[in-house]
């Protein structure tokens, strides 16, 4: 089980764990209730194939299947309230956690094993390392290698951030096991309308201070938070920009995406408004607020952060 609003790292690392479990002779399922727009393509592709059609199950189905002996493996988060289905976590008697996010206040305390490595680029990298470590017993298939490569690619923004020697070694291993960067790239595409909204969002941006750029996405539908994340990534390409914060309003809430190169810690920024993530990639949700008020609030936390950082 990954985190809520699963991204490529969450689903990629879950698929890697699935292969390990299967090849070690265990039944394994990936718990997912809501398939976010970003991962719909990979989810549907897996679901439509004979090999993986039974791989995904909902939280309720998982609850019905669970016994005392069931091992729950949580990937890409260690925070109890961020997992895809909290009831599944609560029911599990044995829990293992794989994650790369920096530790914050709450974490899954009852885990029998926590593999937590904040220096890793992604959970997909960690899981790839585990597969390499196990050796010949695990035979990764091309689609699974693709999923893990997608996780690493997204979390490193295309091997540009947090990609260390081990990250490239993991990618080389995935490539040797059939992963294909061109195929993976197809999963990241936007349709034309989304692309235009992203362009408008980038155009709306204003530099606030000390290289922090802020923008508002004009769209208000489910996929808007992904556009925000992508626009924030895009804004980091501007000379002098150290951190990008992009927001959108969906329903009553404002979704916030924070991205940086690490010098400005967006995790710390997002935690100030109840969100989380890691140093270069974080997010938050502000409830019952207008976009104008959200921008003011975010500017205040940027001020506060820069003040503390001095
Ligand atoms: Mn991740």
Describe the 3D structure.
With 310 residues, this protein is an alpha/beta fold. It has 2 domains: 8-186, inorganic pyrophosphatase (n-terminal core) (Alpha-Beta Complex), CATH 3.90.1640.10; 192-309, Diaminopimelate Epimerase, Chain A, domain 1, CATH 3.10.310.30. It contains 12 helices and 11 strands. The strands form 3 sheets. It has a 6-stranded mixed β-sheet, sandwiched between helices. A 3-stranded parallel β-sheet has the order 3-4-5. A hairpin with a 2-residue loop joins strand 10 (276-278) and strand 11 (281-286). The longest helix is centred in the last third of the chain and has 19 residues, at 291-309. The protein is globular, with a radius of gyration of 19 Å. 43% of the residues are buried. The chain binds manganese (II) ion. Manganese (II) ion (MN) binds at residues 9, 76, 100, 122-123, 155. Manganese (II) ion binds at residues 9, 76, 100, 122-123, 155.
Name some characteristics of this structure.
16% strand, binds manganese (II) ion, alpha/beta, 12 helices, Diaminopimelate Epimerase, Chain A, domain 1, globular, inorganic pyrophosphatase (n-terminal core), three-stranded parallel sheet, six-stranded mixed sheet
